[in-house]
Amino acid sequence: MSEAPASSSGFSLSDRLARLVDVRPGEGPALAWSWAYIFALLASYYVLRPIRDQMGVAGGLENLPWLFLATLIGMLALNLPFAWLVKRLPRARFVPLTYRFFILNILIFSALIALTDGETAVWVGRAFFVWLSIFNLFVVSIFWATVVDVFSTEQGKRLFGFIAAGATLGAICGSAVTATLARDVPTWALLIAAAVLLEAAVFAMRGLARLIGRLHEVPEDSRAGEVIGGDIWAGIRRTFASPYLLNIALFLALFSITATFLYFEQAAVAKNNFPSRGAQTAFFANVDLAVNALTLGVQLFLTGRITRWLGVGVTLALLPAASIVGFAALALSPSVASVVVIYVLRRAGNFAIARPVREVLFTVVPREDRYKAKSFIDTVVYRLGDQVGAWSHAGLAALGFGGHAAAVVAVPLSAAWLLNALWLGRAQARRQDAAKQDAAQQEAAQLAAQADDNPAPLPPRPA
């Protein structure tokens, strides 16, 4: 019987994956479940995202700052109940509960969209815009908190880029579904499809949780069945008490402010160039498709290698450095093409490089911070940055300045962001070295204690 081609060439599929990703023995199943988890999560979100963007345009560009303000208030309101769940329940329970709460929300919006029209439909669209802007940060933050809790710093540098590729593949599929069906399938039906995908993410999360104990380098405090504890205010308090966490928050805030400038310019492009609702939704979906196609190639082949070559700090600094160049170009030559190109390249750089590497920063913080402080930073701080960006953009417009003025302001902000990224890289390295020293000291102490409990036998007495 002839052998399969993979065997005759000397490499199985797992061998090829190991060469591509640098996956080590015992990590493959957890990596696969992580991929399935984030794939389903991002496919669900990207089915919904173009619908949200179209509803934001339909509600009036002048109202977007108010929608961003409502989103921030919603983030603040939701953080405390989530912190209470983290305090009272083990991860294996509070994560599915959170996701199923959002599934219920999706089904309610599906019914409202199907049953309303006219001015009522516009207000439902505004509510959906705010809700999805809360949903996407919460569900993705919970995913990365779970993954950071599972993998070590060393594993994160090797694997997080590849795991993020699962997010991109899911985003591509979700965007493609909406871009293909938006003109012919009712919006409420697309929402139901998104709810099914979110339930699939819950299934994958449970599969990942069952494999946690089998990983070789899982941190010892990463136990899915144990309650994290603490208090519900810990995420806020610990963020402001720690220079390290505060600088992570600053990193995300500066990204969010500059991203909001670009988002408003993209929304204006859609409103001014695509008259119908379906055409606007398809435009947003096609932009997302371009972002995610570019992101996927970088994540599969470059992210892990770039992180190992350059280190965490320099890798984090790549996106702010590119933003300086992009915003300077936009300030000098504002046009539809330049807005779309810079928007696509910047978002791809964030998803492919900055986001997975930023998650490595949380592998050197206590477990409570991975869920509470991280959730606060990923949601409230991010949306606070949206607020600053939204109202700054509105203020510049009220003063009579065009989109190029926001680009001019974004250049020095990106420069500050670059310095912040380099500081974070050095701080992460110091924390990782300190953790290794502590682990070595604990191991030495354990060996010494074992030696005291089992003293060496005395040599035999001479005859």
TrEMBL record:
UniProt-listed InterPro entries: MFS, MFS_trans_sf
Transmembrane segments annotated in the record for this chain: 30-48, 64-85, 97-116, 128-147, 159-182, 188-209, 244-263, 283-302, 309-332, 401-423
Region (Disordered): 434-463
GO molecular function term, any single one: transmembrane transporter activity
Top-rank taxon: Bacteria
Ranges annotated as biased composition (Low complexity): 437-453
Pfam families from the UniProt entry: MFS_1
Gene3D superfamilies with a match to the protein in the record: MFS general substrate transporter like domains (1.20.1250.20)
Matches recorded under SUPFAM superfamilies: MFS general substrate transporter
Keyword Transmembrane helix: yes
Alphabetized UniProt keyword annotations: Membrane, Transmembrane, Transmembrane helix
Keyword Disulfide bond: no
UniProt protein name: MFS transporter
